[in-house]
Amino acid sequence: MFIDLHTHTSTHSGCGKMTLKESVARIMELRIDALALTDHNYLWAPEELKSAIAELPENRPLILRGQETSCHEADVLVYGCEEVMPKGLLKEELVALVHEKGGVVVLAHPFRSNRRMDTPLEELKEEFSIFDAIEVYTIHHTKEEIARARWVVETLEIKGIAASDGHNTEKVGTYATRFLCPIRNEKELADALRNGEFEMPMPYEAGAIDLRR
Predict the structure, then answer these.
(1) Residue 156 in 3-state DSSP?
(2) What's the CA gap between 138 and 206, in Å, rounded?
(3) C-alpha 198: how far from its chain's center?
(4) On the CB side of 131, how many CA atoms lie within 13 Å of its CA?
(5) Contact 41, 87 (CB under 8 A)
(6) What is the dihedral of CA 71, 10, 33, 169, to 10 degrees?
(7) ∠ CA 157-68-7 to the nearest 5 degrees?
(8) Residue 150: which H helix or E strand, with range?
(9) Model-level pTM greater than 0.85?
(10) Which of 13, 29, 76, 123 has the highest CB neighbour number within 10 Å of its CB?
(11) What is the CA radius of gyration of the chain?
(12) Would you give per-residue pLDDT tens digits along the chain (213 residues)?
């Protein structure tokens, strides 16, 4: 099961350039099974999402709720929480709060703009150890940054995800994470991320997911 874990909409992200309906149409074209809505510092309410889903095709992909929260030093993806997380906290404070509420936290685009490319491995190990996973494949990483991220997760034996961070229909679905268990709701998503029941495939080619490593 493939899920794009990091997407934005024009409804609740000021930088978003697509509606949920447009995002879903593109995800369906790419034959991706699900997407997570991770608008900036916003969590879709269940009734709001239910109303939006009513306007979508019956064969639509699964739509899961998450949020991208702005920390003092980083952006993080939060899954499995039923309330909007406060922004501006230190990342250690936010991770502790999310874990207390039963959710999981993924560090978003940690190597973007050449950040941490020369950071010693031991320092990365200490920084990344508090997260449930880090984002490896993302449109905001260059090829060199992706290579660095992949080397880091493999060397440190930490978990990494693939997610588009798509803000428009050209980018959404560029990357997706393959889950090794059924995902039917946000709790199952959080549990699978926490337990490492997923893997990172390569990006799609010619409209289909390429599983080659």
Answers:
(1) helix
(2) 18
(3) 13
(4) 29
(5) yes
(6) -110
(7) 90
(8) helix 143-156
(9) yes
(10) 76
(11) 16
(12) 999 999 999 988 888 789 999 999 999 999 999 999 999 999 999 999 999 999 999 999 999 999 999 999 899 999 999 999 999 999 999 999 999 999 999 999 999 999 999 999 999 999 999 999 999 999 999 999 999 999 999 999 999 999 999 999 999 999 999 999 999 999 999 999 999 999 987 554 434 444 333
CB 90 within 8 A of CB 71: yes
List, in order of start, the domains of the chain with CATH numbers.
2-199 (3.20.20.140)
Phi, psi of 189 (to 5 degrees): -65, -50
| SS3 (DSSP) at 89 | coil
**Containing H/E element for 155?**
helix 143-156
Alpha-carbon span 111 to 175, nearest angstrom: 16
Two structure tokens written together for 178: 């393959």
* Chain position carrying tokens 């809505």: 37
> Tell me, what DSSP letter sits at residue 186?
H
Residue in the block written with tokens 């599983």: 211
Alpha-carbon gap, residue 31 to 25, rounded angstroms:
10
